[in-house]
Amino acid sequence: MSTELSNSGFSDWKPDQLSDLTGRTYVITGANSGLGFEASKMLAAKGANIAMLCRSAERSESARNTLAQSGTGSVDVVEMDLSDLTSVRNAAVTLRSRVSKIDGLVNNAGIMNTPEGKTKDGFELQFGTNHLGPFLWTGLLIDLVEAAAGRVVVVTSAYHKKGQINIDNLMLTGEYSPAAAYEQSKLANLMFAIELDRRLKTAGSVASCIACHPGFASTSLQDASTGLSGFLIKHILNRFIAQPAQAGAVPMVLAAAGTEAQPGGFYGPQKGGEMRGPVSDASAGEQALDEDMQARLWAESERLVGFEWKPL
Predict the structure, then answer these.
(1) What pLDDT, in 10s, does the model give residues 135-167?
(2) Which of 24, 60, 80, 291 would give a disulfide with 54, using CB separation of 3.0 to 4.6 Å?
(3) Whole-prediction pTM value?
(4) Host domain of residue 99
(5) Is 106 left (phi over 0), alpha (psi -120 to 50) or beta?
(6) Is residue 311 in a domain?
């Protein structure tokens, strides 16, 4: 069973509907390639300032140069590795020294269906990189989003509908599979987005949170996919179903800067089981709407990363 989180009143949103974004700042993780790069180009073309968060500033230089030529706004690069919480904290300090407000904090970077591994802090690699890193990153910068009456954007996946939050074994110790770990991390993304927007509303904040997913887009995200699901993704789905990265980035651009997007909304493509096609309101799996589990996941995430959101 699935439920739409919003009823936005449009059926085929396109980036050419964006207004002028001159003077606005968008901070995008994983902005040097794939969906993050394509979304950055669309925002830059409307005059936005872009802050690229990438694991290697050196390897991001070509992408930075391309973005700088795409519009009139500034383009900056900050190094950050979401699988290392020290790196996340250091990147937040660096970014705060360069920007005073954030109109869109876009949590895009992630990994998919990787072999079992650990982050620098000992967390299961996919859960740590896809959820815990962005959870801490957002908490460290939420005041700069509020300063702009801006948006937090959380990029999840339609695969969240297959996921379950194993709250008593989030690291899937003794139960690991690449697909289950990815699905849990993407479900955690959507539950975080829903819970964050609720807490922002309750606190009377001028900031909001909007979720989105790209459908199935062909990007380097799938390169590390392993096992049967990895084979199917790389050799079948990418070939016959996947849409290009530019199309997959459209929901992210809508969530970050589209005036049509609603606080607490969830957006994605509409055709082929929400894998491709026109962009509108996406459907959330029933398990994502469990408010008790959202609260438990939030509390456990705070404990794991050693950070308490205030006053949220």
Answers:
(1) 999 999 999 999 999 999 999 999 999 999 999
(2) 60
(3) 0.93
(4) 2-305
(5) beta
(6) no
Mean pLDDT of 193-198: 98
Euclidean distance between CA atoms 258 and 260, whole angstroms: 5
The count of domains in the chain is 1
Query: Residue 47, Cβ neighbours under 10 Å: how many?
Result: 16
- Please indicate, yes or no, if residue 98 is contained in any of the structural domains: yes
In-domain check, residue 65:
yes
145 and 105 Cβ atoms separated by less than 8 Å: yes
Which of 26, 159, 176, 182 is flagged as catalytic? 182
DSSP three-state, residue 212: strand
Distance CA 220, CA 258 (A): 26
Query: Does 83 reside within a domain?
Result: yes
What are 98-136's pLDDT values in tens digits?
999 999 999 999 999 999 999 999 999 999 999 999 999
Q: How far apart are CA 155 and CA 137, in angstroms?
A: 14
Catalytic residue check, 159: no
Instruction: State the pairing for strand pair 75-79/49-54.
Output: parallel
Give me the CATH number covering residue 211. 3.40.50.720
Asked if 103 and 25 count as a contact pair (C-beta separation under 8 A), the reply is yes
